[in-house]
UniProtKB/TrEMBL annotation:
Keyword tags: Membrane, Transmembrane, Transmembrane helix
Gene3D superfamilies assigned: Spore Coat Polysaccharide Biosynthesis Protein SpsA, Chain A
The keyword Membrane appears for this protein: yes
Protein name, as recorded: Uncharacterized protein
Taxonomic source organism: Cylindrotheca closterium
Length: 494
């Protein structure tokens, strides 16, 4: 009996087996439910976090839209002020009641003290008053900027410069607008700039290339416009690239040779507009030298002023026109050298123009920094002459769109990290000035051009006798000169 009980106790009964099965099933079920519940918890948490992120993004978009709307309103106000300033730029006008000359307003300068305006001639007052009334009716033309390349991210470029055909400045306020198709022309942004160098007879190309690779704002492309074949450009460029490519991130250098320069001084501007895709172009004479921060300075200045300026390190202001009725041999500025036509030579102060250290000027010289799209308005306008005066013609055409010339002089306190200056003529051109292209050009066409542009409506800042009557007499004087005197055979040989 004892053995049977021991054998029966050692074997599992059917009840124990069922209990073990139920326990195992409960454990497996618990694990399965726990896994399912944990998965559902993670999904719910992920959905909640996604909703929170979407809400935050929507709030940020709303804030950006509000900021863009505020920027748009502020920029429209600023641009309206610029347009009003351009409309108010007028020659001296006369008050009929008091018979006193009203002096044209002086534009503020950072470094110079403005001098007192000279009274206008009595015989020209009536005509100047009528000229003023005509100019008051002329409003600046509208400018159409390219749309920004990425409207969803480039809000700065969008809010500053994008316009539609019906308005002068229109800002995109929607941050959800998709980027433009890749084949469409667009604005790459305010940090995009290309440089166009000019080569004639001077051998300054290597020095200018070294200045460009050291700029704090690197150009996307460097274009070299060679007028005729006095300098071997290709070997200079190849040697420079092979020497500097190991130490510098070299921008592409493109050379265009013009064996017969039919476009004259305009050729480099055609090159800048047709070959560049940057927002800004910086066009240099072959005697320009610049500090390492020059490109960054002009790009920042133009962007801050809504691209409504032509910036340069050199500027000129017309002081007076040659009036044959007064004196056919009187120079524009008495301290300058005289020539046979009664004008002044280009060596001293550039044709009698008043050099200004800083501020608005009548036109820029030596280098021209502006938004590339503005060139199409100038290059599409009628050309007065290809012989000379591309600087004055550029200022004349863009003035009709509310764009004026501005000289960025050397700052009194330079930045300790870099020099943001540029120089022309006094720098690289000082030692080889006889190789300048203007040296073999006659002075009379440039003097005629000044009078022609004033007669066409060019508004100068500080010129007492710049009116239609004197300008017409000046034009007739130069056009009626002895053709033998003005013939190309009498030009100076360069």
């Amino acid at each position: 009996m004892t053995k049977k009980k021991q054998n029966g106790a050692g074997q599992p009964s059917w009840a124990k087996f069922i209990l073990l099965s139920i326990a195992a099933a409960l454990i497996l079920g618990y694990l399965f439910l726990h896994q399912r519940l944990w998965t559902m918890h993670l999904r719910t948490r992920l959905l909640v976090e996604t909703d929170l992120q979407q809400q935050q993004q929507q709030q940020q978009q709303q804030q950006q839209q509000q900021q863009q709307q505020q920027q748009q309103q502020q920029q429209q106000q600023d641009h309206s002020q610029l347009l009003k300033q351009s409309q108010n730029r007028q020659p001296p006008r006369v008050s009929a009641a008091t018979d006193k000359t009203v002096v044209p307003r002086k534009y503020q300068e950072n470094d110079d003290n403005s001098s007192e305006q000279k009274p206008c001639d009595i015989e020209n007052r009536q005509q100047m008053a009528s000229d003023t009334m005509i100019k008051q009716e002329k409003l600046p033309k509208q400018i159409e900027w390219l749309p920004p390349c990425n409207t969803a991210t480039d809000t700065g470029a969008s809010s500053t410069n994008s316009t539609s055909p019906s308005t002068t400045i229109t800002t995109s306020t929607s941050t959800s607008t998709p980027p433009l198709p890749f084949w469409m022309e667009c604005d790459p942004g305010p940090k995009s700039i290309d440089v166009i160098l000019t080569v004639y007879k001077r051998s300054n190309l290597r020095l200018q290339l070294e200045m460009l690779v050291n700029q704090t704002l690197q150009p996307q492309n460097i274009f070299v416009y060679q007028s005729e074949h006095y300098v071997k450009v290709e070997p200079i460029v190849q040697a420079f690239q092979s020497e500097y490519k190991a130490d510098y991130k070299m921008p592409p250098i493109h050379v265009l040779q013009a064996p017969v320069d039919v476009a004259g001084y305009h050729g480099r501007f055609y090159m800048a507009y047709t070959m560049s895709r940057a927002r800004y172009v910086s066009i240099w004479d072959d005697d320009v030298s610049a500090g390492t921060g020059w490109l960054e300075r002009v790009a920042t200045f133009l962007n801050e002023h809504h691209d409504m300026y032509i910036a340069s390190s050199g500027g000129r202001m017309v002081q007076s026109l040659v009036d044959p009725n007064k004196s056919s041999s009187a120079p524009i500025v008495s301290k300058n050298k005289k020539d046979r036509s009664g004008g002044s030579s280009q060596e001293s102060n550039t044709f009698g123009m008043l050099a200004k250290r800083h501020g608005e000027v009548d036109f820029c010289v030596h280098n021209y920094n502006l938004r590339r799209e503005l060139l199409r308005y100038w290059l599409g306008a009628p050309v007065q002459t290809y012989y000379t005066g591309e600087d004055m013609q550029l200022a004349f055409v863009l003035q009709q769109y509310g764009v004026h010339a501005y000289k960025l002089g050397r700052k009194l306190q330079r930045n300790e990290h870099y020099d943001d200056w540029a120089d022309g003529a006094k720098g690289l051109g000082a030692n080889n000035r006889n190789k300048a292209s203007y040296k073999k050009k006659r002075n009379e066409p440039r003097q005629w051009l000044i009078c022609k542009l004033v007669a066409e409506g060019f508004q100068t800042i500080d010129c007492p006798n710049c009116n239609a009557t004197v300008a017409k007499r000046c034009m007739d004087y130069y056009e009626n000169l002895d053709h033998h005197v003005l013939s190309s055979s009498n030009e100076k040989k360069g």
